[in-house]
Amino acid sequence: MTLPWMEAVQQRLEQANVTERLGHAPLICGPAGLGKRALAEWLLARVLCLAPAGEAPCGKCRSCELLASGSHPDSFRLAIPEDKKEIPVDNVRGLIASLQLTPRIGPNRVGLIEPAEAMNRNAANALLKTLEEPAENAWLILVSHQPGRLPATIRSRCQKIVIRPPEPDAASAWMAERHPELDQADRARILTLAAGAPLAASALLADNGLEHGQQILDGLLKVASGGPVSAIAGEDWHAQPESSWHWLSTWMAAFMRQAQGMRGDALPEGFRLPRPVAPERLARLWEQALAGRRMASSAVRHDLLIGKWLLEWARSFTPER
Ligand SMILES: [Zn+2]
């Protein structure tokens, strides 16, 4: 794994591992787009490796080979099933049972749950006993983008490993290597849009995510300049509700920062709204967009919700009567 901002935490985990002080339930948490999953996979491989070479899993032993081919019988991964929106209790019970089996390859077994906050209440409760009395030589790695959504009883039984975004210079250097086509100003802007998370910034470029963001910013400007909401509602924003709400909240946050005269702006150079909007109003719109995003995967009419939001946005630019 070559994520420079992870090196220090990898060394700490390695040290804990060789001195047998690695807790049985590390909880790797922090914002999305920093490489938490990659760190979890590294740790899983490191615990299972039969001939670790320094900090790295050797890549050659039977355990490493089985992991690479995706068929290691002592590693167990739990994610949200494709047809579900959360991790059900039965899947957690299955994982617990698997961790109690005798290891087949080496001395250890490892489970990995991501995203841990997707466990429903019953699922989390089922895990508690395992966390309290971990089986010998069984590890459970939890990865969470929103650890605050995990029950406190789970959090208190895990060893928290907090991953923070790298310093802007380090993030920019990593982006420069991966995206040599960008100049420094563009790198800085995209990193700001991705809240400083380099992998998230890189993903924005890969998925044409920026294009959608720009389209939404253009639409906001049209409405702010007196254009009818109906004209842009036809642009299918509701086809990708999560991305639309994400960008609406991102731009509201950017307008709030601009209104407060803050630097590090995510907005294109020289971008200005036709008239200033009160910060409280921007904050309310921002909160509504965040609420919309939380509902992105539920079966609500996002076209109606986004339309309603846009009417509220339009009202911000018409004189109060
Ligand atoms: Zn190995």
The ordered H/E elements are: HEHHEHEHEHEHHHHHHHH
Say which molecules are bound, naming each kind only once.
zinc ion
The whole-angstrom Rg is: 23 Å
Going by CATH, the homologous superfamily of the largest domain would be P-loop containing nucleotide triphosphate hydrolases
**What order do the strands of the largest sheet run in, or round the barrel if closed?**
2-3-4-1-5
**What fraction of residues sit in β-strands?**
5-15%
Which architecture of the largest domain does the CATH hierarchy give at level 2?
3-Layer(aba) Sandwich
Q: Helicity, in percent?
A: 40-55%
Poorly predicted runs of 5 or more residues: none
Coarse morphology: elongated
Describe the secondary structure blueprint for this structure:
Blueprint: H1 7-18, E1 26-29, H2 36-48, H3 62-68, E2 75-78, H4 89-99, E3 109-113, H5 121-132, E4 138-144, H6 152-155, E5 159-162, H7 168-178, H8 184-193, H9 198-206, H10 209-224, H11 229-233, H12 241-259, H13 279-294, H14 302-315
Parallel strand pairs: 1-4, 1-5, 2-3, 3-4
Helix pairs in contact: 1-2, 4-5, 7-8, 8-9, 10-12, 12-13, 13-14
Bound molecules: zinc ion (ZN).
Zinc ion is lined by residues 49-51, 57-58, 61, 63-64.
